[in-house]
Amino acid sequence: MSAHAAEPPVGADFVVVSNRLPVDRSTDDGGWRRSPGGLVAALEPMIQSTGGAWVGWPGQPDIEVDPFSFDGMELVPVSLSTDDVELFYEGFSNDTIWPLYHDVISPPAYHREWWEAYVRVNERFAKAAASVAAPDATVWVHDYQLQLVPRMLRELRPDVVIGYFHHIPFPAYGIYAQLPWRTQVIEGLLGADVIGFQRVADAGNFARAVRRRLGYETKAGSIRVPTPDGGVRTAVAKAYPISIDAAVYDELARRPEVQGRAREIRASLGDPAVVLFGVDRLDYTKGIGHRLKAYGELLAEHRLDVEDVTLVQVASPSRERVAAYMQLRDEIELTVGRINGDHDTVGHTAIRYLHHAYPREEMVALYLAADVMLVTALRDGMNLVAKEYVASRVDGRGVLVLSEFTGAADELTQAVRVNPHDIDGLKDAIMTAIEMPEHEQRRRMRALRRRVRDHDVAAWSRAFLRDLATVRGARDADATPPAATEGKDRG
Ligand code: G6P
Fold this sequence. Notes:
Rossmann fold; globular; disordered N terminus
């Protein structure tokens, strides 16, 4: 059964669809504030110049908000009820897909009721996008909460060109195959013309799942997808590693007040010789427990001394109503308490633990204050923190310890690479980072900074949109009536 095409709307030529809108509602005055994040920075110029729209959830249950303009963008809110938040967002998105796609670090739960809500809410997003897109518009759908939207949207609006970008890993088939709705999800994604992934390996895993589930031919990132009219179209599945707005971090890090704040942070920690730093959403994929274990053992074995070293761990609150996240918080806070209890002195603390989110200026000051950045994720689509640290190190110093299980590890090859499951290896890597001579730090940081500067988020979105434009070009060429070409030939 195919859905009916919507009435041709007069709408936006470029539409972004993501679970969250790029704004948050302030609790003080009910006004809208831009939420931090690279995606909006990357897409905003394109949205503003094309009179584009952004479809997404305003972040709170049970509120109905009419479309509104914000900084030259048309924002189109999609409401989620309390039930939708529980079943679609906390349930299927963050307790089924999230753990499954992160290699089942935490066991995924499979509930038919959650799946039904996922279908229902994806339909709502697809309809909202269909109603706001101008004829032949370009629509760019984002992330794992909305994997069914590309196909639903294609059914509603066969005229639009559809891109999808997957911000998290796509797992190997042996893991993916657990999903009871594994075929429907792949069919959903294949509704897009270009399906972007963080790593080459993710795109490969997806193509393999397509072959296994649907038997479609895939070749070098091109997938031949049968169309309802008996024809075939090509979908592209390819890696487009996402990045940050590197220039913004660079600029902030050069500000005297930010550098002053970095010195103030070190002073308030008691001016230790070495500051280690970790910053993550409080998520079980981030390997925070592994990091704490390695650090605790280094202290216990007197390879590190609390008088000389402090670990600052920022853990920003996340998905706090999902049981796995509550349990993680308890575990991490218990571990922090134990390590501090065992090793703190009256004047020095082993771990300064902060369960908060911070504005970007403060983050940059923390990056500048940190001699060693610890990114020990067990699985991570990209890990933008690693790139933010590098972009902030305008002084050319600092060492990045980076898990090989992040997308960033494919690019940031000058980091100290770790397998966070190997606690002894992680301890040695932390010591290597702490003891690294300054000239070696500078040599590595120079290469890292070049990479992040040259492959920033604008380059990422350009590469993706260029491929979408190619699809459009090919489609237009196919649609050109032969007579027109002949006429041209005759001159
Ligand atoms: C990851 C996901 C995003 C998500 C973000 C925050 O980066 O890829 O899609 O928005 O986490 O999670 P939240 O559940 O708060 O949206």
